[in-house]
């Protein structure tokens, strides 16, 4: 999801929850005015916390420093523990700014109610991103890999301009709170309708253990079928299979130590944090040097059949299409030199 949708939906929900969508009564007492202002502040923080985890984009360059692999985008900031940390830090900075510019940001002056609002608001971010193809590493550091319902891979392009326009009109007082609430309800209904249409053409593979992943095109799916020693990836389009790729686990004898060395590296941990599909391992030896390749099959199949964005892609400029979604570690025991794409 995009940052505007991440703000708009929790903000709209808080507006309805606190009754701010109703017209403000005239002649309120000082106490009633204070309650109204407090609710408005909590709603604003709830929305702000909703997009705060995406502020990790300003820090993701640190992910290659020793021990900081979890600073990647949709890394620590998109976990049950990390999301509130980002939201609380951002809310604290807003409160400090409110002290410096009270006439402009006075609504964000610190209130103790900001703590639960920031925590709960940050978790709405995880719910929304959990609907998308790339998901979130929800339970890290207790469990690796991403949690996702695989509902959407393409919805950001549709909702981004809507959220941008609604928020801009609200900031310039062209949209009142009831209009914002209505926009939020409309977006949720649109998600439900699009999800229903999306799953209407979802393939139903007969093979036991088969996995289904959405693709960028609403009419396409990736179907992974387990085969001896690996997976067979099938491209489902317009009600039929339009392409097949096979990926085999290929661990050469004697590579066990090299594989374990690679698994202990920050590069592998960063790769695993960004993975959600089945992972196979390939290894081969050149002289006294081992090369170990970890492949997230779902991402690799996506990359090999079209220029789609994958959650472990590092940058558009550095990684070619065939390099997206996998990590290659060149291992020379006991040291590991890393050539990594995508974490």
Which terms would index this structure?
alpha+beta
Characterize this entry briefly.
This protein has 343 residues and is α+β, with helices and mostly antiparallel strands. Helix content is 41%, strand content 17%. The chain folds into 3 domains: 3-198, no CATH class; 211-248, no CATH class; 256-340, no CATH class.
Describe it.
Helix content is 41%, strand content 17%. The protein is built from ten helices and eight strands. The strands form two sheets. The protein has a four-stranded antiparallel beta sheet, covered by helices on one side. It has a four-stranded antiparallel beta sheet with strand order 5-6-7-8. A hairpin with a 5-residue loop joins strand 1 (211-214) and strand 2 (220-227). The longest helix is centred in the middle third of the chain and has 24 residues, at 177-200.
* Head-to-tail CA distance between termini: 19 Å
Order of SSEs, N→C? Answer: HHHHHHHEEEEHHEEHEE
Mean pLDDT: 83
What's the main sheet like?
Answer: 4 strands, antiparallel
The dominant shape is flat
Strand order of the largest sheet: 1-2-3-4
What are the low-pLDDT stretches, counting only 5+ consecutive residues below 50?
307-325
Structural class: alpha+beta
Give me the Rg, rounded: 23 Å
Number of separate helices: 10
Q: How much of the residues is beta strand, in percent?
A: 15-25%
Total discrete domains? 3
- Strand count: 8
Secondary-structure map with pairings?
Blueprint lengths: L2 H15 L12 H22 L30 H19 L1 H4 L8 H16 L26 H16 L5 H24 L10 E4 L5 E8 L2 E8 L2 E9 L7 H8 L2 H8 L5 E8 L2 E8 H8 L21 E7 L2 E6 L3
Antiparallel strand pairs: 1-2, 2-3, 3-4, 5-6, 6-7, 7-8
């Amino acid at each position: 999801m995009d940052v505007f949708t991440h703000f708009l939906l929790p903000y709209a929900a808080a507006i309805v929850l606190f009754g701010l969508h109703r017209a403000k009564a005239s002649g309120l007492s000082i106490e009633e005015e204070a309650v109204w202002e407090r609710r408005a502040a909590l709603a604003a923080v709830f929305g702000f916390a909703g997009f705060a985890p995406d502020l990790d984009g300003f820090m993701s360059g640190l992910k290659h420093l020793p021990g900081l692999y979890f600073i990647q985008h949709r890394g620590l900031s998109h976990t049950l523990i990390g999301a509130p940390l980002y939201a609380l830090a951002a809310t604290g900075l807003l409160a400090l700014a409110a002290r410096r510019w009270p006439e402009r940001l006075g609504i964000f002056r610190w209130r103790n109610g900001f703590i639960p609002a920031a925590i709960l608001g940050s978790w709405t971010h995880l719910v929304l991103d959990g609907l998308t193809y790339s998901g979130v590493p929800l339970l890290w550091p207790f469990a690796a890999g991403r949690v996702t319902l695989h509902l959407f891979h393409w919805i950001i392009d549709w909702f981004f301009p809507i959220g941008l326009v609604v928020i801009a009109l609200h900031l310039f007082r062209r949209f009142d709170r009831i209009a914002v609430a209505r926009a939020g309800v409309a977006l949720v209904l649109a998600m439900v309708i699009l999800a229903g249409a999306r799953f209407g053409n979802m393939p139903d593979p007969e093979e036991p253990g088969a996995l289904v992943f959405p693709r960028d095109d609403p009419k396409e799916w990736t179907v992974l079928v387990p085969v001896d020693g690996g997976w067979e990836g099938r491209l489902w389009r317009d009600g039929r299979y339009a392409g097949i790729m096979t990926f085999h686990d290929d661990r050469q004898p004697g590579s066990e130590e090299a594989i374990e060395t690679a698994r202990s590296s920050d590069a592998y941990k960063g790769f695993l944090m960004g993975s959600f599909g089945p992972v196979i391992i390939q290894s081969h030896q050149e002289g006294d040097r081992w090369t170990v390749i970890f492949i997230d099959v779902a991402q690799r199949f996506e990359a090999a059949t079209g220029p789609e964005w994958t959650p472990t892609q590092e940058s558009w400029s550095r990684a070619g299409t065939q390099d997206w979604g996998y990590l290659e570690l060149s291992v020379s025991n006991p040291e590991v030199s890393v050539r990594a794409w995508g974490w």
